[in-house]
Design a protein that fits this description.
The complex is a heterodimer of chains A (about 375) and B (about 375).
Chain A (H helix, E strand, L loop, with lengths): L6 H17 L3 H9 L7 H7 L4 H4 L2 H13 L6 H15 L2 H12 L5 E4 L15 E3 L2 E10 L6 E8 L2 E7 L3 E7 L5 E11 L1 E2 L7 H36 L1 E2 L2 E2 L4 H29 L5 H30 L9 H16 L2 H9 L13
Parallel strand pairs in A: 1-4
Antiparallel strand pairs in A: 2-3, 3-7, 4-5, 5-8, 6-7, 9-10
Helix pairs in contact in A: 1-5, 5-8, 6-7, 6-8, 8-9, 8-10, 8-11, 9-10, 10-11, 10-12
Chain B lengths: L6 H17 L2 H8 L6 H13 L18 H13 L7 H14 L2 H12 L5 E4 L15 E5 L2 E8 L10 E7 L11 E7 L5 E6 L8 E12 L3 E2 L5 H15 L3 H17 L3 H27 L10 H22 L8 H8 L10 H12 L3
Parallel strand pairs in B: 1-4
Antiparallel strand pairs in B: 2-3, 3-7, 4-5, 5-8, 6-7
The chains are: A alpha+beta (about 375), B alpha+beta (about 375).
The complex binds flavin-adenine dinucleotide (FAD).
The site of flavin-adenine dinucleotide has 16 residues of chain B, from helix 12.
């Protein structure tokens, strides 16, 4: 197993970092962007740089490297939601005509797609139940759909006689939008006899949906990882400069030890999250391998993520609670990613279901 | 980034697995898997099987029996050995004194000791800690005063693991009591434990066993040629040794094997559902530990542990403890009299020795985070 990245990948990282640290050069700028419509400002330039076509052209490794850079500045642009997940589904399931119609436009930033899958009152299950498709129309409610209001194209999962299918919708629905705690927007989307066309052949697409969600989870993991890294760096910097009792806080071993524990959590999480990408990028990995890797990664996102996010606030004291200072926003985004990928209990259950299929867990293929 | 082993590494893994599961006696391996104590003879027998095949000390320089392996191959060797229940080559020999002698010793001292150390013809004990020098090891007080061609050693060591089996003991001693800093004036000295004036007294631990000892030195006369490297440079060698020790404590393979046992037992007793959450959580953390070990191995220069090896020490020891806790819990009331409860108690040691986990946090906060 080899975790090293090549020089082309390093260049990609440098280019994306250059761009997003310029667009979101401070916590203020980012906050201003999320408070204005549509809530993100790097999209066009990411498109120009070719980043939005990566999931269609490159491997999960490149996708994850980009996600990690976005996570470091907690860029509010819906790269994983729209490109990896919704775009990924169109690429995986769409007919040739649909791909031709949409993929270039998505990569160019002209069409923003989102995937409407979760349903009110349910967990992160991949199948659809309350939204149904019949006679060319959709009925039912999806929530919470990230950036549904801004979206030009909805990919919707819906129950059909054949199982869970995928459908494309451009109009004829209502979206009731709310702000999320991490500054994004999520909507309750209601379909009522909404005209929809099947994505692809129109049959059961459960497997493709599950796979796309798992690939998105793995990319989200890197977004969380980038945010965790910066939350820790910020905290360490603060301990070195903030003075109380006439000395800097890093005079107190109790605080330094907590920071050391955050580092332990971060490095262990980095290993699993990166390993999950390596699994996703390996052509021999089955859907089941990718699902297991996504769940392992999600467990780290939730556990290490909360450990780092919450202690980063605590070690800052009051300033960590303010909307003006960055660290609380990092915490909020890390927690939000946990809510997007599925929580610890959900992924523990998923992994428990296959627990007896191996005696020891072997990370190497 | 790559997940699959290369065909060569895959073949290497199979070769290791085949060797460990067929050449090392099953009666020894099953004792390890049952977490029972081994006799001295069993330790020696197993290490000699490995050494005869050139597999006891792969980390040493090639001319002294080491292997020109990649870090990944070394990881595979270690992992397969533990999964098969093969006792690891005695750490005092293979990962502590051997590498110090090989790196810092004279040609003469290498020739005297290295081959016998690899073959466990000499059983080494580690004489570092003293009653008043634990985490603050450099405050040690055992003295070695030069008289002609000999050092005269006086003082006390403690916590000497398996000192009752020891033929020789490698010591940190104070050769210059007047040195300005306490780290200066320390030397690395080898002492034959049968020398007059050496007394070993057992200490009983909370699990009831006797694996550690106090060792007393009263006017023990040691030839000067038993000094390793230079006089008063012992602290440098000790730091090198402790860095290697830290890496060895992670025990990924052993924890994985023990977790598999726990899963099997929970299933046998119809308790899998009750314990599934804990098992999944531990598998996830062991995955994190193993993939971190692979990452750290890939980035460490020969002989010098990566600073993140403190992560491996902390998490590795915690997981050893957590898995033995699970094994104990699954036994229910039977744990009151079981071996596993004693192993669980015994495993409190792994977060204390090898640089306690608090010392590792100090290293992370200081050298990595700059706090
Ligand atoms: C089973 C066992 C086997 C051992 N085998 C050997 C052996 O073979 N040879 C050998 O030489 N030694 C051996 N040791 C000794 C071991 O290395 C020491 O126990 C260890 O270094 C800790 O020292 P101490 O026990 O004196 O505890 P102390 O150093 O007194 O520490 C007490 C507590 O305070 C904490 N602490 C100490 N200093 C600090 C600090 N600066 N900041 C924060 N916390 C601190 C420690 O982490 C610990 O929790 C063994 C120990 C055990 C338990």
């Amino acid at each position: 197993m080899d975790f090293t990245i090549d020089s082309e990948q390093r260049d990609l990282v440098a280019a994306v970092r250059g761009l997003v640290t310029k667009v979101y050069d401070s916590s203020e700028t980012r906050r201003a962007a999320t408070n204005a419509e549509p809530g993100f400002t790097a999209w066009e330039r990411l498109a120009e740089m070719g980043v939005l076509s990566l999931p269609f052209e490159a491997t999960p490794a490149e996708v994850s490297l980009v996600a990690e850079e976005l996570g470091k500045v907690i860029a509010p642009d819906p790269f994983v939601e729209s490109i990896v997940l919704a775009g990924g589904l169109i690429e995986a399931v769409g007919s040739d005509e649909q791909k031709e119609e949409y993929l270039d436009a998505i990569a160019g930033g002209e069409i923003l797609p989102v995937f409407a899958w979760a349903e009110p009152g349910r967990d992160w299950a991949a199948d659809a139940a309350s939204v149904t498709f019949s006679d060319g129309t959709l009925s039912g409610t999806k929530a919470s759909v990230i950036h549904a209001e801004r979206a030009d194209l909805l990919v919707v999962s819906a129950a059909t006689d054949a199982g869970t299918g995928l459908f494309l919708v451009t109009e004829g629905y209502t979206a009731e939008t709310e702000r999320t705690h991490d500054g994004s927007r999520a909507a309750t989307v209601t379909f009522d006899g909404t005209p929809a066309v099947p994505l692809g052949a129109g049959g059961d697409e459960s497997a493709a949906i599950a796979r796309a969600l798992d690939l998105a989870r793995i990319a989200y993991g890197h977004e969380a990882l980038g945010a965790m890294q910066v939350a820790l760096d910020t905290t360490v910097g603060y301990l070195k400069t903030r003075k109380q009792f006439g000395v800097t806080l890093n005079t107190f071993q109790a605080l330094n030890f907590r920071a050391a524990d955050l580092y332990v959590s971060l490095e262990l999480a980095r290993s699993v999250i990166t390993w999950a990408t390596v699994v996703a990028a390996d052509e021999n990995s089955s859907d089941a391998d990718i699902a297991a890797a996504a769940s392992q990664s999600a467990l780290q996102v939730n556990r290490a993520g909360r450990h780092i996010a919450l202690d980063a606030i605590q070690l800052h004291g009051g300033i960590g609670m303010t909307a003006e200072y960055s660290v609380g926003h990092y915490a909020s985004r890390i927690i939000a990613i946990g809510q997007l990928v599925g929580d610890e209990a959900f992924h523990t259950d998923r992994l428990a279901a296959t627990l007896t299929e191996h005696d020891v867990l072997d990370p190497i293929g | 980034m790559r997940l699959q082993l290369s065909p060569e590494d895959q073949a290497f893994r199979e070769e290791m697995r085949e060797f460990f599961t067929t050449q090392v006696p099953e009666r020894i391996r099953s004792k390890v898997i049952a977490r029972e104590e081994l006799s001295k003879e069993e330790w020696v027998e197993s290490q000699q099987v490995l050494n005869a095949a050139g597999l006891a000390v792969p980390g040493w320089p090639v001319e002294w029996g080491g292997k020109d392996w990649t870090q990944l191959q070394r990881h595979i060797w270690h992992e397969e050995m533990q999964l098969a229940g093969v006792p690891q080559p005695l750490a005092f020999n293979a990962s502590m004194v051997g590498p110090v002698i090989a790196n810092f010793g004279s040609q003469e001292i290498k020739e005297r000791f290295l081959a016998k150390t690899a073959n466990l013809d000499i059983w080494w004990a580690q004489g570092f800690s003293e009653p008043d020098a634990g985490s603050d090891l450099a405050s040690l007080r055992t003295t070695a005063i030069r008289e002609g061609d000999e050092y005269v050693v006086n003082g006390q060591k403690t916590w000497t693991t398996l000192g009752q089996y020891g033929d020789w003991i490698f010591m940190l001693v104070r050769t210059d009591p007047k040195a300005e800093k306490k780290q200066q004036g320390i030397s690395f000295l080898l002492i034959d434990m049968t020398t007059p004036g050496v007394t070993v007294r057992p200490i009983q631990l909370i699990d009831g066993g006797f694996e550690v000892n106090e060792v007393f030195f009263e006017n023990v006369r040691v030839p000067v040629e038993n000094l390793v490297g230079e006089e008063n440079k012992g602290w440098t060698y000790a730091k090198f040794l402790l860095g290697n020790e830290r890496v060895g404590i992670a025990q990924v393979g052993a924890s994985k094997r023990n977790l598999a046992t726990a899963k099997e037992r929970a299933k046998e007793r119809g308790l899998l559902e009750r314990y599934a959450g804990r098992i999944v959580g531990l598998e996830n953390e062991l995955l994190a530990l193993e993939t971190t070990a692979l990452r750290v191995a890939a980035h460490s220069d020969a002989g010098k542990p990566h600073p993140a090896s403190s992560v491996l020490k902390i998490k590795g020891s915690q997981l050893t403890q957590a898995v033995s806790e699970l094994l104990m819990d699954i036994e229910g009331p039977a744990a009151l009299t079981s071996r596993d409860a004693r192993v669980f108690l015994n495993n409190r040691k792994v977060s204390i020795y090898g640089g306690s986990n608090e010392v590792q946090r100090t290293i992370i906060a200081g050298t990595i985070l700059g706090l």
